[in-house]
Amino acid sequence: MIEAAAVGPGDRVLEVGAGSGYAAAVLSQIATAVYAIERHPSLVEAARARFARLGYDNLEIRVGDGTLGWAPAAPFDAILVSAGGPKIPLALKQQLATGGRLVIPVGASERRQNLLRVTRTGEAAFEEENLGSVKFVPLIGKGGWPEVGGPEVGRERRVRMQNLPELIGGRAEALPALQ
Question: What is the pTM of this model?
Fold first, then answer.
């Protein structure tokens, strides 16, 4: 994704879905400034401590909804999204500098996407290139998929589990750990 986004010296980069911070650390060795967003606070805390311990001083990481980007730090020369969404979040396109590249997996299913490279060619003009089929974890947020395990999903799963004996033909003893 770093190569597809043509990240180079002098670039300001946003990484969405930073996870452990590995890609952000690699990006910080290439780009001038790196901003990383991760939705899991424990991962952000661990990455932040690791960056401080290793002396990475040109990157920032925060907890947040990556589909909204990081508007105060924009515009970005490159944005890399490490999770697949149903569409390209508008906020991310708006935070690209002219000539900026956005690399993001997009697909109608949480299980299969196409890796797209979107280049901003003007104020409201973008070119899109399909780099091939990929499979990423779901992009969760306002501009992505709804959170898995939310109230309705959780309720639906609980109802299915309660009906499990019926679903497996009355053989609940086949799955004693679920009783």
Answer: 0.82
